[in-house]
Amino acid sequence: xxxxxxxxxxxxxxxxxxxxxxxxxxxxxxxxxxxxxxxxxxxxxxxxxxxxxxxxxxxxxxxxxxxxxxxxxxxxxxxxxxxxxxxxxxxxxxxxxxxxxxxx
Length: 104
Hints:
By secondary structure, this protein is an all-alpha fold. The chain has helices spanning 2-23, 29-49, 55-78, 84-103.
């Protein structure tokens, strides 16, 4: 169950990272409230996972999911670069997440 918490927490990390783009510096009410809610849910779920999982592993997987998800959303929604080197680096993060899961 702890790994599920980390995974969902990572998805909420993606949500709040993308939400930051829409808050326009926290000047827009609804995007700001949604972003703050996603932050709270993400941290709450990570906290639950840390009851069972090692801190370093859980945190690395959480930030990895957030980084990969945010980078992919940036490519998809905001037209950010999708050159081969960038995609390779994203793949390396995914490999690290999988490796940490396998050894924990």
